[in-house]
């Protein structure tokens, strides 16, 4: 089944070329079924790229999914055109009285700031508080995961000696968890961040379950409250070349960032990297939509 997206969304052309099953509003209205309503709070600077990353994975299930994009009202994006935001995005005030089956809160390039220093932190905490009663399951990615761990459970973050960037090997700790059904015992996943969370606090917290981690990259996938909150500190949604783009961008800005580990063939940035995590990315998003959203959400919220 398809994902339903706005007819003119630029990501549509990319997804159609990849044979991702999508549907516009006109065709969706003709189908007499109850689709899942997913809200995406996109905090990434290059929003159109993130839209394609996430929609590619959300469109790989037998479920029909309605997508709504959310932007912050207290922060103006500098890397996405106002016309695009006006046409395809809404604000929290416009949706706060609605119920959503699932929600995704993305990462953001604000890790080196204390949470309270982020200019939209108060707005974000209001949204995260709202998800506890208005969303069946919320998936938090990278900085979004760290923000959720801090706000919901008081688990802090700390700055790393150097940026954690690369494709790392991970181990599954809880095979009975539905989110990890079908996962290999060990698998690859990309990370791109300057901070990490305190694993000691994670392991001691009675509500948080550490489902998967990496010896090099630290805690990766966590779940709380029966899957109502899911935190993923890396970027399974990334394309093969995304880390290379970030590395080139940062070096161009004069930043002393390391070459992404275990990523370029022979550690040579001049060579094209391979995607070693695609299957597990599709699997995790499919498991989330099926077991934590579709299987748990009420047919009629009222």
TrEMBL record:
Pathways involved: Amino-acid biosynthesis; L-methionine biosynthesis via de novo pathway; O-acetyl-L-homoserine from L-homoserine: step 1/1
UniProt keywords, alphabetically: Acyltransferase, Amino-acid biosynthesis, Cytoplasm, Methionine biosynthesis, Transferase
InterPro entries in the cross-refs: Class_I_gatase-like, HST_MetA, MetA_family
Membrane as UniProt keyword: no
Alphabetical list of SUPFAM superfamilies matching this protein: Class I glutamine amidotransferase-like (SSF52317)
Group of enzyme by EC: transferase
Name of this chain's protein: Homoserine O-acetyltransferase
The species this protein was found in: Sporosarcina globispora
Organism taxonomic ancestry: Bacteria, Bacillati, Bacillota, Bacilli, Bacillales
